[in-house]
Specification:
The complex is a heterotrimer of chains A (428), B (349) and C (129).
Chain A: E1 2-9, E2 12-15, E3 20-22, E4 25-28, H1 30-38, E5 43-51, E6 57-66, E7 69-71, E8 92-98, E9 100-105, E10 114-117, E11 132-140, H2 146-166, E12 175-180, H3 184-190, E13 196-204, E14 210-214, E15 217-218, E16 225-227, H4 229-233, E17 237-241, H5 251-255, H6 258-266, E18 272-281, H7 285-301, E19 306-310, H8 316-330, E20 334-341, E21 362-367, E22 371-374, E23 379-382, E24 404-407, E25 423-427
Parallel strand pairs in A: 1-8, 2-4, 6-23, 9-11, 13-18, 13-19, 19-20, 20-21
Antiparallel strand pairs in A: 1-12, 3-4, 5-11, 6-9, 6-10, 7-8, 14-15, 14-17, 16-18, 22-24
Helix pairs in contact in A: 7-8
Chain B: E1 4-11, E2 28-30, H1 36-44, E3 48-56, H2 58-63, H3 65-78, E4 83-86, H4 93-110, E5 114-118, H5 123-128, E6 133-136, H6 144-160, H7 167-170, E7 178-182, H8 187-200, E8 229-234, E9 238-240, E10 256-259, E11 271-273, H9 281-285, H10 293-301, E12 307-314, H11 322-338, E13 343-347
Parallel strand pairs in B: 1-3, 1-4, 4-5, 5-6, 8-12, 8-13
Antiparallel strand pairs in B: 2-3, 9-11, 10-12
Helix pairs in contact in B: 1-6, 3-4
Chain C: E1 8-11, H1 14-20, E2 25-28, H2 32-44, E3 47-49, E4 67-72, H3 76-98, H4 107-124
Parallel strand pairs in C: 1-2
Antiparallel strand pairs in C: 1-4, 3-4
Helix pairs in contact in C: 2-3
The chains are: A alpha/beta (428), B alpha/beta (349), C alpha+beta (129).
Chain lengths: 428, 349, 129
Amino acid sequence: MKLELGKIEIKDIRFGDKSCVDDHVLSINKEEVERLVLEDDKLIGCHLELAKPGEKTRITPVKDVIEPRVKVSGGEIFPGVIGKVSPQVGSGRTHALSGCCVVTVGRIVGFQEGVIDMSGPAADYCPFSKTLNVCVVIEPKEGLETHVYERAGRMAGLKVATYLGELARNIEPDTLEVYETKPILEQAQQYPDLPKIGYVHMLQSQGLLHDTYYYGVDAKQIVPTFMYPTEIMDGAIVSGNCVAPCDKVTSYHHLHNPVIEDLYRHHGKDLNFMGVILTNENVFLADKERHSDMVAKLCQWMGLDGVLITEEGYGNPDTDLMMNCKKVERAGTKVCLITDEFPGKDGKSASLADTCDEATALASCGQGNATLHFPAMDKVIGTTEYIESQIGGWAGCMNEDGSFEAELQIIIASTIANGYNKLAAKGY
Amino acid sequence: MAAYRIVHYLNQFFGGIGGEDKADYEPEVQEKVIGPGLALAQGLGDDYEIVATVICGDNYFGENLDEATDTIVEMVKRYHPDVFVAGPAFNAGRYGVACGTICKAVEERLGIPVVSGMYKENPGTDMFRQDVILVETGNSAATMRKAVPKFVNLIRKLAAGEEILGPAEEGYLERGIRVNYFADERGSERGIQMLLKKIAGEEFSTDLPMPKFDRVPPAEAIKDMSKATIAIVTSGGIVPLDNPDHIESSNATKFGWYPIEGMEKMSKDDYTTIHGGYDRQFVMEDPNLVIPLDVLRKKEKDGEIGKLYPYFASTTGTGTATNSAAKFGTDIGKKLVEDHVDAVILVST
Amino acid sequence: MYEREKAIIITNNDRVFEAYKDEMQVILKQTYEEVLIATRDMVYDRHILLTHPQASSLKPNQTPYRSVIVYPGSGEDAMKAILLIEKCLEVYRRWQEIAPSPASYPKKVEDDFKTIDLSIVQNVMPRIV
């Protein structure tokens, strides 16, 4: 399966009469987008705001972040959720508006959502402090069930991203990247002397606000399966997760999965990237046992010499992470884990909720309990009303001038456990 | 006058009082530079002065933990030091525990920065590495010369309130404190490089070493308790009043066997606990709390268990090196197997 | 593999209690910690865990509600269950030391937490067949 990913560099965003991309500038017809979002009768309010790197702007509570993309040659983006499911997903040509993101903002539940600062100390920790952000601020109808509203929020972001992505269809990309993974036997033969490497991608799937969708299928329902890495670049996986901002894998991070991107960078040089094994993080213990057994079997069946395993979340998923690690190693495939840490504010406690002897290689994505000062900003998109009850904040952490103290946990994707950032922790 | 004042702690040996025969030596202060202090003073230069040296015997300290700590903290306080230095203890276990205990107390109670040093396998290392900066030394005093520059650098930084960098930069034993930094490569790339090295059998270093557990698979369950012989083993420090085997109150180097044949319960008139790691008052009042002889005798009479083994084994758990504990366990287990004991109740405290 | 009537829910979420009390045994506790302790006691007394006691990635000081499902059983699974519940208690206490759970939440937030906790139980129920 071969995908050409054309990237159109966006250098500025603005509101205009007509939505279009012209000379690297994205213009957006504000009313048209707001109308699109309000087609959903679960939502009674929507307004768009723009946030750019360097501005004294704070965005919170953030639900999801999505890069606008479009399928140029057959097939549709976000299959099973927005677009139709088709065999073309992951192949052909896709265009992306690079450097700009759709950010959905608004109260989902009374806690959990995170913060993006466009400047100041917290900006160093957040990937979306460096992107041009189209913020979709939404307001639900009164009295909606939490899960109904979560879905409406999720769909609003994806719809806007799809709408903006469509603008890229007929534009000549600045760069064209080509990614290819062949059927397993051919792939093994292409680089017979290089170590065969796979990626075990654990999807958050614990329940309401802890869900991920694979071709529109709730990831709780899947059993471990093989996926061509390019499928994810066409939006085969979208996030429905709102838990713990710092290690949330946003839909943007699925499109830009760093393990997949970096494995492709090494592909054919010092390793042979064989593909992705998808699995989940269920609550039911029998599922954990079965799925870790199946992951180990798939690794063995694919003849993998090594895998990287990433998780999303803390606690229950740590158990899946360690079960996968142990069983995959015992089945003869070497493992390196990538995850973040929660050792307490003083950094002295155990970092993970579970461990195993086989986890001899682990790349840290930093520790989320470290605290940071968030200075007051000139502009707030959304509301800072809930900071004290958001994860990473605490009662009394907010100051009168709008500044506050909080743990890194409150920043969207600051310690994301798939290795997207350079943040790491070491022993002192 | 020097800009910074230092108080130094030594045991009876390094303090020049004597060897094991002087290990009961009570705390005292000498207003001079002694033994390893000379090398430190020389390295530190004229801006730093070791104004006093506190000396205490290792056994005295181990057996009078609270009292000795209080006394020594008071002694240190009188000299208003800018930095408190203990040891280094190298691989001397009791000395290491003493250095760690005192440093922790001085820092907590007086707010004075502290530094000590020891060998990585010293039992004091695992007990205090999170709380006290411990310069990594070799296992004997012969390595002092190499440790001096590390001590000097850390003492200077602590005195001036400068940032202490990581263990690799400063030469101390890792405290197990997780600190964030921005790496040169992102996590996914670092993971790939680590994995490739692991596959190639090359050396790599994980970002997060896993804790090591010495797991022992549980034995088969006993089918019929009414025929089983049961023994009691404890790390709770229960000994006859005169502590005939001189088991230490922390970092034990030995264990003892004590008879319970013919006894209905443990009496406070015959037994006590010398354990230095928990509040002993309830156990001293009622040793059955740790050696549950009263309850087990009743179960024996009622036929719930076959019989009680006529001895219990006892040592002190606190500060005891894991390899000492493993050796005690092997010796105790061997005897119990020889005497056909079916099960053991291990009482921890 | 399982019979619903034999499974036991231990919870401090009244909405879980109300939802399932008529079809199976539901033990209602006051606090998160009491749920973990009651679970531990059940596990030591010949039960296995059907669900992970730290379900959801909300850290143990970030949600006031906890529901766990146990089932009669012994052997290797019981040993695993003991290790897991003890680990969870340890982790719970570690997080309370880091920062104790807030004494109370606004009503709406509390309802959200109950909803999330309930959804985890609802998602697992179809598996208990």
